[in-house]
Predict the 3D structure of the following.
Amino acid sequence: MYKETEINYSLIIILLVISAFLIFSPELADLKIIILSINLLVTLLFFSLTIVIDEQKLRWYFGFGIISKDVELSQIVETSAYKTKWYQGIGIRMLSDGWLYNASVGQAIKITLADRKNIYLGCKNVDALQQALKVKV
């Protein structure tokens, strides 16, 4: 079994700064509760990205797992390293040839499925994830 979790520090810091600004801003008194609630919800949903490989599936999820996806290992035909661009952002993004799921900009693994769809998973250690997938596939 393989498991890796990456904390989304940039999102946490940005939302903390926005929340601090709101708390000390008297102009936005009516919207404080709403905006702080949205910030808390976004933080709880996207504070981390976890990738898990078990005997049959590759699974990834954000935060506590409310937003999750998985694929059967038998559907994976190829993997390769991928470098994400700063403008691709963090979270869930649609690229020209597939979907990107990441908690930070930098390294990712490109996973090509049997139906030729691509999935890009951001991770700290691309080599370890590729090795774990090769062992299982």
User: Anything to note?
Assistant: The mean pLDDT is 92. Strands lie at 2-7, 48-53, 57-62, 67-72, 76-83, 91-95, 98-102, 107-113, 118-122. The chain is about 30% helix and 40% strand. The longest helix spans residues 9-23.
